[in-house]
Design brief:
By secondary structure, this protein is of the alpha/beta class. It has 30 helices and eleven strands. It has three domains: about 65-205 and about 215-275 and about 310-335, Rossmann fold (3-Layer(aba) Sandwich), CATH 3.40.50; about 340-435, Helicase, Ruva Protein, domain 3, CATH 1.10.8; about 445-535, no CATH class.
């Protein structure tokens, strides 16, 4: 064995990095990165200066407080269910199952921290498989569970994983991202929740040939994570991570923790499983004796997704999942489809629903809207037709408010009503609103001329005094070109500062009156002013 073969690759990399950082040019190039690692940045000091003007926010629990909360976990399943009721409509069974699984898991962690015998005993984690169509609240459920407990949370789509990590995302990066969400705190991250969506998309197919980079291989790698394994904090392909680890060694004298155990990390996976419901329906029907039974007829009236709750282990195996993978997901629950009534309830009572987001969007322009009950029902009805669950609400609300958000901020209108007709024909309703408030709209547009005057004076030092007919003409011409008045004025008088500077040098004049005739051809009027200025003595004389 040669000396080269006997060398430690990590030591060799560290040596190369030390040599690299001796170069002055490299030190300069990586200065911003070094600042981010040490936290010593000018922006940090600037932040301290500006913080005096911002109202103090509610302090986030410290690291020790978060860890103590986990060690002393005492939540009851009903408490968690009641909390989730504030945010997610329906899904009663999913809430119950999740609440129990979460309580079981964190009660076990609490026991492990108190008793070493419990920690060393065999334990099957209550990893959860959530099934159900898109937009029914699966992700929202898990985000709020993690928020309530106060543990780090990370969410990813299974479709971006690959077996090797070279083609796509390495499954180990899930755990590394969990550490990042815990601000690099490995101890806190080891009690976090990992949520993997679209798990149904990595079902293996028998017809596949060649290397399986998105099916069986990914399942096997996820299987290792869901059991108990050690994950290196820095990926072999993560050069920046390796550099940070090196600098940590240089700063502290000894390396920090290089790996994290997944033993106490709770894994939640979910997917729509579009075809699975149909497969279960067929299986159940085949198992029945006779044809055209009342039960069979009753089943045919339900959607395929309604059969997801009846799925068994063999159904998941037939779907394309490894038996070992399915076995590591002992807690399984199906979410229900959302009806138009459910979608209506979301808009009316769910905390943080998307309707509040739109209220906040308009509030940014000091505009508020009142929405009627029949409008809520119509939005829910149209959203149900989208077949995308609660996401359909976003689609319909965007269609309803799109033109309002574009037009109203420039009009001076401070409130409007949303009724059924508004949802049916947003454009006509908005045009009617603008016509009804024509005087208010015109006043706002005239005020935009004054805004331009203020900005022009601030930028160039010259005062433009528009006569009323000139303002009206600007508003009219801007409307004809479908432009904002402010932008139209900027375009019309783009070259004015140069001509006014010449005039000011000759005459000392700083204030100029804009008559109606100047609006049609401002440059022509400006040229006349410049020529006239050469025949005048400076005002100071």
């Amino acid at each position: 064995m040669t000396k080269k073969d006997d060398e430690n690759p990590l030591e060799e990399m560290q040596k190369q990095l030390r040599d690299l950082f001796k170069n002055k040019n490299v030190q300069v190039a990586f200065a911003p990165f070094m600042q981010s690692m040490t936290g010593k940045d000018d922006s940090e000091e600037k932040g301290k200066e500006t913080s005096k003007d911002t109202p103090p926010e509610e302090p986030e629990p410290s690291r020790d407080e978060k860890l103590e909360s986990i060690r002393a976990f005492d939540r009851k399943p009903k408490e968690i269910r009641d909390y989730l009721d504030r945010f997610v409509i329906k899904q009663e069974q999913a809430k119950r199952v999740l609440s129990v699984a979460v309580c079981d898991h964190y009660n076990h962690i609490r026991s492990c921290l108190r008793d070493e015998k419990v920690a060393n005993a065999s334990y099957v984690k209550p990893n959860v498989l959530l099934l159900g169509p898109t937009g029914v609240g699966k992700t929202f459920l898990m985000r709020n569970v993690a928020k309530l407990i106060g543990v780090p949370f990370v969410k990813a789509d299974a479709t971006k994983f690959s077996e090797t990590g070279y083609v796509g995302y390495d499954v180990d990066d899930l755990v590394r991202d969990l550490v990042k969400s815990a601000d690099g705190d490995v101890e806190l991250a080891q009690y976090g929740i990992v949520y993997v969506d679209e798990i149904d998309k990595i079902a293996s197919e028998a017809s596949k040939s060649g290397r399986d980079v998105s099916g069986r291989g990914v399942q096997i790698n996820l299987l290792k994570l869901m059991e108990e394994t050690e994950v290196n904090l820095h990926s072999p392909q993560d050069m920046m991570g390796q550099m940070k680890a090196f600098m940590d060694v240089q700063k502290g004298g000894k390396p920090g923790k290089s790996a994290i155990s997944t033993k106490n990390i709770l894994f939640i996976v979910s997917g729509a499983f579009d075809q699975l419901g149909e497969n279960v329906r067929k299986r159940l029907n085949l198992n029945r004796i006779g044809f055209g039974s009342s039960d069979e007829q009753s089943q045919s009236e339900h959607s395929s997704s309604s059969f997801l709750g009846k799925a068994e282990t063999r159904d998941f195996i037939d779907y394309g999942f490894e038996p070992e993978f399915v076995g590591r997901l002992p807690v399984r629950v199906a979410c229900e489809d959302l009806t138009k009534e459910d979608l209506s309830e979301i808009l009316l009572s769910s905390e943080g629903n998307v309707l509040e987001q739109y209220r906040n969007d308009f509030a940014g322009y000091n505009i508020e809207f009142n929405i009627s009950g029949d409008a809520i029902l119509k939005i829910a009805e149209k959203a149900a037709d989208e077949k995308t669950g609660a996401r359909g609400l976003v689609t319909i609300l965007e269609r309803t408010f799109r033109d309002y958000k574009f037009e109203l901020p420039s009009t001076g209108i401070k409130s409007f009503d949303v009724d059924k007709q508004t949802v049916e024909d947003p454009q006509s309703s908005m045009n009617e609103l603008l016509e009804q408030n024509r005087d208010q709209v015109d006043d706002s547009m005239l005020a935009d001329v004054d805004r331009f005057v203020e900005e022009f004076k601030r930028s160039h030092g010259f005062e433009l005094r528009f006569r009323k007919p000139a303002k009206i003409a600007l508003v009219k011409l801007a409307g004809q070109e479908n432009r904002s008045v402010f932008a139209f004025c900027e375009k019309k008088f783009a070259d004015f500062q140069h001509g006014l500077s010449i005039i000011s040098q000759r005459t000392g004049k700083k204030s100029f009156v804009i008559e109606r005739k100047a609006i049609d051809d401002p440059d022509k009027e400006l040229s006349r002013w410049v020529i006239d200025s050469f025949g005048k003595k400076p005002e100071s004389e």
